[in-house]
Amino acid sequence: MKIAIPVKDDNLNFFPNAGHTPKFAVYTMTGSGMFKSFKLDEIKQNPRNDIDHTNPEADHACDHSHDDAEHIEQHNKMGRVLKECDYIVVEKACKNTARSFTSEGIKLIKYNGDSLESTKILNELSSKFI
Predict the structure, then answer these.
(1) Count of CB atoms situated within 10 Å of the CB of 114
(2) Contact present, 74 and 50 (Cβ < 8 Å)
(3) Cα–Cα distance measured from residue 39 to residue 61, given in angstroms and rounded to the nearest whole number
(4) Residue 126, phi then psi, degrees to nearest 5
(5) Residues 39, 86: Cα–Cα separation, whole Å
(6) pLDDT for the residue 70
(7) Measured between alpha carbons, how far is 37 from 63 in angstroms, rounded to an integer?
(8) 12, 21, 31, 87: least buried by Cβ within 10 Å?
(9) Could you tell me which of 64, 59, 60, 71 has the C-alpha nearest to residue 95?
C-alpha cells in the first residue's frame, strides 16, 4: 500500500496545504497491526506550475473565482503524479485538490495533530490505512 504525504522539503517535514506543497513523500506501508512499518520510496515534486513553490511558509489560498479549465488542470496534475498511491495525508485541501486525488482513486486522510515529522504522522494515522 502506498501513502503520500505533502512535505516542505527533503527533511520530510509535513506541509499542511496539500495543494500548495512543494513536494510529496511517497511511502510504502508493510505489515499489519502493531507490525506496520513505512518505508520512503521517493520524493516527488508538486507538478503544479501555477503557484510559487519558493515561499512555502506563505499562507496560500486557492482562488476559485477563476475555476477555468487551466486552473483545474493544474490541480489535476497532482492526482496524476500520485496515481499509484492509495492514500494522501492532508490537513487542508481545496475542492479542486481533493477532487484531483479522489478522481485517481486516492483516499484523503485528515491530520490535525501537532507533529511535523512525516513518519510520526504516518504512525499516528496507521489505523486509518486499511
Answers:
(1) 8
(2) yes
(3) 31
(4) -55, -30
(5) 15
(6) 86
(7) 38
(8) 31
(9) 64
Question: Are the C-beta atoms of 22 and 15 separated by less than 8 Å?
Answer: yes
- Pairing mode, if any, of strands 2-7 and 23-30? antiparallel
Q: Per-residue pLDDT tens for 57-80?
A: 555 556 665 668 888 899 999 999
Residue 83 backbone phi and psi in degrees, to 5: -60, -20
Q: What percent of the chain has pLDDT over 70?
A: 88
Residue 110 exposed, middle or buried by CB count within 10 Å (0-12, 13-18, 19+): exposed
Residue with cell 492509495: 86
Continuous segment of H or E residues that includes residue 75:
helix 69-81
Nine-digit cell string for 103:
478522481
Largest CA distance in the chain: 46
3-state SS assignment for residue 81: helix
Half-sphere exposure for 13 (CA within 13 Å, toward CB):
7
DSSP string, 94-129: -HHHHHHHHTTTPEEEE--SS--BHHHHHHHHGGG-
